[in-house]
TrEMBL record:
GO BP of this protein: phosphate ion transmembrane transport
Disordered: annotated segments: 403-422
Compartments in which it is found: Membrane
Primary site of residence: membrane
Record's keyword terms, sorted: Membrane, Phosphate transport, Transmembrane, Transmembrane helix, Transport
Similarity annotation: Belongs to the inorganic phosphate transporter (PiT) (TC 2.A.20) family.
GO molecular function: phosphate transmembrane transporter activity
GO-annotated cellular components: membrane
Protein name per Swiss-Prot or TrEMBL: Phosphate transporter
Bilayer topology annotation: Multi-pass membrane protein
Pfam families in the cross-refs: PHO4
Keyword Transport in annotation: yes
Top-rank lineage group of the source organism: Bacteria
C-alpha cells in the first residue's frame, strides 16, 4: 500500500457505514417471508441471515469489479467524489427505512456514484453502456423474472401438494422455506456486500493506495462482509413488516416459492456480474407468490408506493450526491461540512424513528385494512335474516288465550278465558 490519506480513511469508514445500512435495510429481502409465516423466530432469522451474508461476501468479486472498474472512469475520480456518492446513498437508505419502503440500496449507491461523478468530471466520465446493460436493464428485468417465476412456482407447489396431508405439508414447506431463506442470504452477501467492496476499491485506486484494475484486497472483503452482517443482525424491522405483511399474506408454500425464485435470480446475476437489486428481485417474487395462490391478493397501494420509491432512487441519490460533491469542492472545510450534515441528518432520522418503535416483538403486528362499507344488497339481507336458533328477543311477545272451561250449571254463561302473556 503506497499511501493512506485522511480523506481516504474517511471514505473507507463512510463506505462501511453504508454497508451497515445496506445490511439492516435489506434484511427483509432474505427473512421477511420466513418471519411472517412463522418458519423462524425473528431474532433467529436475522442471526442466520447475518452469518450467511458474511459467508457470501467471500464467494465472488464480479459485482465489485463492475463497480470499481466498469461504471465510471477511474482516472477522473477523487476520494471526495466517492465520499459524496456515499452520502447520497446513506441518506436515501435511511429515509426509505424510516417510512418502511423496501427500496434498492444498490441503486442508491449507483445513483450517488453517478451524480457525484457527473458533478466532478462531467457526463463523459460515466460509462453509459455499462449503466444500461448491467444496472438499468437488470433493474427492470429482475422483478419481472422473479415475479413470474414465483407465480408459476406457487401454482405448481399447490398443485403437487393438493393431496398431501395439510399439517405435514405445511411443516415440510416451513423447513424448505428456511433453506431457501438461507440461500437468499447467501446470495445477498455475494451481491450487495460486493458493492461496498467495489466502492472502497475505487476509492483506494483514486487515492493511489492500490494500482488501477486491482481486485478488492482481502481486508476490504473481510470488513465489508462484517459490516453488512452486523447491519443484518440488527434487522430492518420496519421494512421486514412491509415485505412480510404489507404486500400480501403469505403461506409457507408461497414463502418457499418466492424465496427460491429470488435466490435463483440473484445468484445468476452475481455470476454474470450484474449489479442487481436484491430488493427488486425479492419484492417481485413476493408479489408473484401472492398472485400464484388461488384467492391470494396483492396490496397494490403498498406496491405502488414501492414502485415510486424505486423510480426515485437513482435520481434522488444522484442529486444529493451531486450537491455534496459541489460543497466538497470548496476544500477541506466543505468536506467537513458535508460530514457534519450526514451525521446530523442520520441522528435526526433515528430520533424520529423512535416515535414508533418496530422491533422483533411487534414486527408481525399488521393492522388489517379498514372494512369497506356494506352495499345495499348486504344491508337488505341483514334486515331479513332471522335470529339464530335459541336466541330470545326482548321486544317479541304474544298473547295466548286460555282454553274455555265448561260451566258446572249448563244454564250459567261460560266464564271468559284468562289471557296468558308469553
Amino acid at each position: 500500500m503506497e499511501s493512506f490519506s485522511l480523506i481516504l480513511a474517511i471514505v473507507v469508514v463512510t463506505a462501511l457505514a453504508f454497508d451497515f445500512t445496506n445490511g439492516f435495510h435489506d434484511t427483509a429481502n432474505a427473512m421477511a417471508t420466513t418471519i411472517s409465516t412463522g418458519a423462524l423466530k425473528p431474532k433467529v432469522a436475522v442471526a442466520m441471515s447475518a452469518v450467511l451474508n458474511l459467508v457470501g461476501a467471500f464467494l465472488s468479486v464480479e459485482v465489485a469489479n463492475t463497480i470499481s472498474k466498469g461504471l465510471v472512469d477511474e482516472s477522473g475520480i477523487r476520494p471526495e467524489v466517492i465520499f459524496a456518492a456515499l452520502v447520497g446513498a446513506i441518506l436515501w437508505n435511511l429515509l426509505t427505512w424510516l417510512v418502511g419502503l423496501p427500496s434498492s440500496s444498490s441503486h442508491a449507491l449507483m445513483g450517488g456514484l453517478i451524480g457525484a461523478t457527473v458533478a466532478s468530471a462531467g457526463l463523459g466520465a460515466v460509462h453509459g453502456d455499462v449503466l444500461v446493460t448491467k444496472v438499468l436493464i437488470p433493474a427492470i428485468a429482475a422483478p419481472l423474472v422473479a415475479g413470474i417465476a414465483a407465480m408459476f412456482a406457487t401454482r405448481l407447489t399447490y398443485r403437487l401438494g393438493r393431496k398431501a396431508d395439510g399439517r405435514a405439508s405445511e411443516k415440510g414447506y416451513r423447513a424448505g422455506q428456511i433453506a431457501s431463506a438461507g440461500l437468499v442470504s447467501l446470495a445477498h452477501g455475494t451481491n450487495d456486500a460486493q458493492k461496498t467492496m467495489g466502492i472502497i476499491t475505487l476509492a483506494l485506486v483514486a487515492g493511489g493506495a492500490v494500482a488501477p484494475d486491482s481486485d478488492p484486497p482481502m481486508w476490504v472483503i473481510l470488513s465489508a462482509g462484517i459490516a453488512i452482517a452486523l447491519g443484518t443482525y440488527l434487522g430492518g424491522w420496519r421494512i421486514i413488516r412491509t415485505m412480510g405483511k404489507g404486500l400480501t399474506d403469505l403461506q409457507p408454500q408461497q414463502g418457499f416459492a418466492a424465496q427460491t425464485s429470488a435466490a435463483t435470480v440473484i445468484l445468476a446475476s452475481s455470476h454474470l456480474g450484474f449489479s442487481l437489486s436484491t430488493t427488486h428481485s425479492v419484492s417481485g417474487s413476493v408479489m408473484g407468490a401472492g398472485l400464484g395462490r388461488k384467492g391470494g391478493v396483492v396490496r397494490w397501494s403498498t406496491a405502488t408506493r414501492m414502485f415510486v420509491a424505486w423510480g426515485l432512487t437513482l435520481p434522488a441519490a444522484a442529486l444529493v450526491a451531486a450537491l455534496a460533491e459541489w460543497v466538497c469542492g470548496f476544500g477541506d472545510w466543505g468536506t467537513a461540512l458535508v460530514a457534519v450534515f450526514l451525521i446530523a441528518s442520520s441522528a435526526a432520522i433515528w430520533k424520529i424513528s423512535r416515535r414508533e418503535v418496530i422491533d422483533h416483538t411487534n414486527v408481525n403486528d399488521h393492522e388489517a385494512p379498514e372494512a369497506e362499507p356494506s352495499g345495499v344488497v348486504t344491508q337488505a339481507m341483514a334486515a331479513v335474516t332471522p335470529p339464530p336458533a335459541g336466541t330470545v328477543t326482548d321486544d317479541l311477545s304474544a298473547t295466548i288465550p286460555a282454553p274455555v272451561t265448561a260451566p258446572a250449571d249448563p244454564a250459567a254463561p261460560a266464564a271468559p278465558p284468562a289471557a296468558t302473556t308469553v
